[in-house]
Amino acid sequence: MGDPKKLKKKYSTPSHPWQASRLEEEAILVDTYGLKNKKEIWKAASFLRSIKKQAKTFIASTSSQAKKEEKQLLQKLQKINLLSKESRIEDVLNLQTKDILDRRLQTQVFRQGIARTPRQARQFIIHGHVSVLDHKVNIPSYMLTTEEETKINFSPSSSFKDPEHPERKVVKQEKSKMVRPLKKETDRAEKHKKETVEEKKAKIEKKGEVGS
Fold first, then answer.
1. 152 and 174 share a domain?
2. Do 114 and 209 lie in a common domain?
3. Does one domain contain both 172 and 67?
4. CA angle, corner 46, sides to 109 and 58, nearest 5?
5. Domain housing 57
6. pLDDT in tens, the chain (212 residues)
7. How would you class 1 by CB atoms within 10 Å of its CB: exposed for 0-12, middle for 13-18, buried for 19 or more?
8. Prediction pTM value
């Protein structure tokens, strides 16, 4: 038997390990998206560099094969909702690392209110509580297609499937708390607006009395 095949890295590390601006940006991304470590950012950045490199090649080429591959790349990116159907190959160059991170299953589980935090979303996925199109998925970095994005739910075997689960009640309570302050602020703004109108009327009436 030969030696086990050495797996190729799916990312490249930064050229310089101590760049303050990059380290600060990476720390924000790790916290915002609840990532395990910076490798997940580097994987997304490597994928982004790869598709941008392809896009630049297709833009510079006029061959029929390049046009065919350009169409395939656009269809691939449209499928995972990184580009719209009206997008052109030049739009690939405007994509950023956060656009890739937005398409991860972990991010969507949090944004759709299935989990309270990005880190909890990661925990749900790894422990097998989340399904996509009725299939259990335990990979937080799984890139969702447009169709799959609307079909995320708790897996049938998960205890969180029960709407009366304490954790799901907590999520509902937190959502309601987020709505109440907004209504309070709206009422306060309306009250202030009403008071302002009344003050203006009083000033106008006062001026009229002084003039007479």
1. no
2. no
3. no
4. 110
5. 20-159
6. 456 666 777 788 888 888 899 999 999 999 999 999 999 999 999 999 999 999 999 999 999 999 999 999 999 999 999 999 999 999 999 999 999 999 999 999 999 999 999 999 999 999 999 999 999 999 999 999 999 999 999 999 998 888 888 877 676 666 665 544 444 544 555 555 555 556 656 665 665 554 55
7. exposed
8. 0.75
